[in-house]
Amino acid sequence: MTNTILLGTHVSVHGGIHTAFERGMKIGCATMQVFTKNSNRWKAKTLTEEDIEKYKTARANATIHPVFAHASYLINLCATSPPTLAQSRSAFAEELRRCAALGLEGLIVHPGSHLGAGEPDGIRRIADSINLAHEQTPGLSVRTLLETTAGQGTAIGYRFEHLRDVFEHIDDRERVAICIDTCHLFASGYPIDTPEGWERTLHELQDTVGLSRLAAVHVNDSRRELGSRIDRHEHIGKGKIGLASFAFLMNDSRFAAIPKILETDKSEDMHEDVENMALLRSLVRTGTQMSGKNGEIRKRPDTQEFKDRPMEADRRTS
Q1: Per the structure, how many domains does the chain have?
Q2: CATH for 293
Q3: How many CB atoms lie within 10 A of CB 207?
Q4: Which pTM was predicted?
Q5: pLDDT averaged over the chain?
Q6: Domain of residue 53, residue span
Q7: Under 8 Å CB-to-CB from 37, ≥6 apart: which residues?
Q8: Long-range CB contacts (within 8 A, 24+) of 240-243
Q9: 66: cis peptide before it, omega within 30°?
Q10: Which tens digit of pLDDT belongs to each residue from 31-90?
Q11: CA dihedral angle for residue 263, residue 267, residue 268, residue 272, rounded to 10 degrees
């Protein structure tokens, strides 16, 4: 039963990218996210044929699917400095190639920060960067997933309209999708902590980008309050969002086939991920489904019920 829900976490690739499958299987991941290179360095170790073969063998022997990569945190697709922009674009295209070589389904990337140039300029530059990467990587099936942001600093992507506007300037839109992050949504001001706010947020997403473009969800609680514009992830049920919101997510039929991936702090044994996933699975209720037809809710989760429940997460030491 544990792998019937598309739920997983970001998994370490220490010892080789193929090792992520053993770690993911050990804790019950049905999907997962990895880095294909060091996330805080520009240079990447070359993926050898042996690396690729080991990865594909490990994947064939696992039941984890799909697998996404997260792009380097150094990449800024709308950087104002020409050298940084060129380096970001080159690194982004290279990460797409690495994902394609391994057969990953998508590369999740933060849209970028305009650094004072203004949002319209930043949005156009992000689209130009993606178009250039597509020109440099023709025929690749791996998709770019633009991630929603908390809006910290000059980050683009804290409103759905930003992503819509990026899409409007992209030539090959079939190669681009989105990833929403629950912490980022909440911190940027989307009130996903109430049934009404949850529905309103999804209607806004549908009206701007379209739910059909949603390819993944980062499932994180938030250490900071609604609208703080500060990106601080927290364990499920330990932050400001509230457990009820995650019940909405886990019981919404529109999200049943969407991979859900944790990005919270963890120890080497990953017990925090085990507890977070167990808690999320425990929120699933038979007959408690939110329907995608016309956006109506057939039966809402009881908010107070989930707020009053004792936390498995209370045992965490992180």
Answers
A1: 1
A2: 3.20.20.150
A3: 12
A4: 0.89
A5: 90
A6: 2-315
A7: 44, 45, 72, 95, 98
A8: 240/186, 240/193, 241/182, 241/183, 241/186, 241/192, 241/193, 242/193, 242/303, 242/306, 242/307, 243/279, 243/283, 243/306, 243/307, 243/309
A9: yes
A10: 999 999 999 899 989 999 999 999 999 999 999 999 999 999 999 999 999 999 999 999
A11: -60
